[in-house]
Predict the 3D structure of the following.
Amino acid sequence: MAAQCCCRQAPGAEAAPVRPPPEPPPALDVASASSAQLFRLRHLQLGLELRPEARELAGCLVLELCALRPAPRALVLDAHPALRLHSAAFRRAPAAAAETPCAFAFSAPGPGPAPPPPLPAFPEAPGSEPACCPLAFRVDPFTDYGSSLTVTLPPELQAHQPFQIWWLDPELTYGCAKPFVFTQGHSVCNRSFFPCFDTPAVKCTYSAVVKAPSGVQVLMSATRSAYMEEEGVFHFHMEHPVPAYLVALVAGDLKPADIGPRSRVWAEPCLLPTATSKLSGAVEQWLSAAERLYGPYMWGRYDIVFLPPSFPIVAMENPCLTFIISSILESDEFLVIDVIHEVAHSWFGNAVTNATWEEMWLSEGLATYAQRRITTETYGAAFTCLETAFRLDALHRQMKLLGEDSPVSKLQVKLEPGVNPSHLMNLFTYEKGYCFVYYLSQLCGDPQRFDDFLRAYVEKYKFTSVVAQDLLDSFLSFFPELKEQSVDCRAGLEFERWLNATGPPLAEPDLSQGSSLTRPVEALFQLWTAEPLDQAAASASAIDISKWRTFQTALFLDRLLDGSPLPQEVVMSLSKCYSSLLDSMNAEIRIRWLQIVVRNDYYPDLHRVRRFLESQMSRMYTIPLYEDLCTGALKSFALEVFYQTQGRLHPNLRRAIQQILSQGLGSSTEPASEPSTELGKAEADTDSDAQALLLGDEAPSSAISLRDVNVSA
């Protein structure tokens, strides 16, 4: 029976069914090979089985779709060379059950004899057997980060008729003593996890059933709806639409500990006490502050899982379950900022998402602004201004390296076909985006009024994907007085110029409220660059930096890094004054001091570099040092350290370091002019030895990496 309306109708007549307006097609995304604009994705269902002995993750996927126009000839999904597909078949119910979805079956043969897990149950009409016929599909090259999977569709498929896609999954590898596996989808990497519309413009709900060996804990970026311990089967459900890159899984020897009424941390047993002590009570404080600013938290739980050092980025804002690298635990202030940033993504990025990777700032710039509003509410304006000054310093440093006319310094970056969107993840996305959002907040004259606007913006666009014009139109509609003043066209500060001009931000925030923390940093740096050195060093040594905040010390060391190479007598005095003290501080401090050591070829402290690299397995604390070592006269030292430590590194990190070390092999390189016991052994190596080390079975081109995002999300 059709719904009745309140207008007058002829006797016995029924109201015509009211059709909702057609949904606009998703934004075109050059990073996706898929035909997402021709279909609407309703839901995806994963069925997975962890197979530690075979180092394999096998499974099936059901994609529930509708075609947006009649008789589409093919469905194109994003895939990856690591994704092995075996067969496709089409099943449909008899005509009497026209509403029964169609299905395509895929399989991926595993390397071992174990049979694949059963496919999810397919709805069938009672008392009937569904027809089944094979369908053609092909996998074609697309870019170096993915492939296109084209499936020929049956000609009788009508517009808006539901149908389903099934397939079996590839293997995922890990290298731990106990089974441990994680996925990381940002930006375009989940196409190596399962075939999908791998674009942020497409969102859907999802569910999953995962079977794991005894003793292995499984977590996903969704609500756990059931766990059958005897069978080792975990059930998950995500009730809100999310893009493909936010589907994430982690499994391993993980233990939980509650840290708040709706939060717990998950970590390996040896890390759990530290993680719990550092975050207990704090996460609820941050969530409550965010809710006061931007409205209710909509994802149910906010849990955190600490991942091994092989996790390729610092943190990832997966809904319900933030992924964060365990290496950050020793740096308290960085831990606080990184978790709060991921909390902010719950509103900006997860609920409201950038429709294309060309406008990533819509997630990262807004999340950075929200993060700093939360830190101001909880820790005060001075701390927030210090952290902002530290990040803006890094932004200007990156700008000097890239040049002010670099196209990646635009907020609206033009993504050329074939370019990995992950390469657009830079400080402009975060900090230039933040500066634009901060500028908008200043236009309305009151941060609280701007908070109200952002709250309304989230409410309007939650669970959808947006473009910059959506944000700016909403802003001008919320503040009609600003629209009347044509603030979007102010000379030199036009909104269009903010989006499309290269170079630094058109305006930066007033950070004077942080001067009590930033002024001592500037004063100490000026002392070390003053003449005469003896007098300056004596004055500097009277300042006790052990009482400083981490961001103050890091900012001071970054200033020294910017000035490197420094005069050798200055480096000697710095080492005498600070080396032992800094060696006892956290890794964020130590790596900066060691970069100063390397960039200034200061051999007396080179043993500290060796010890640091021998103890670190994280990309964030190894890649910068190897890059600096290979830029100067210390490449042979880098080769020696890598040779001794490579067995403890994750294969992806090992390949990345191999690529750094292999640059310039075959050309004549001068050995270090100063003898050193640290270098003696390595200097005897020849180019052929180095090439054998770097270009063997682990050569960068010899394997497919499942992750290539190298920065924090």
Q: What stands out?
A: The longest helix spans residues 381-402. The chain has a mean pLDDT of 83. The chain has 21 helices and 22 strands.
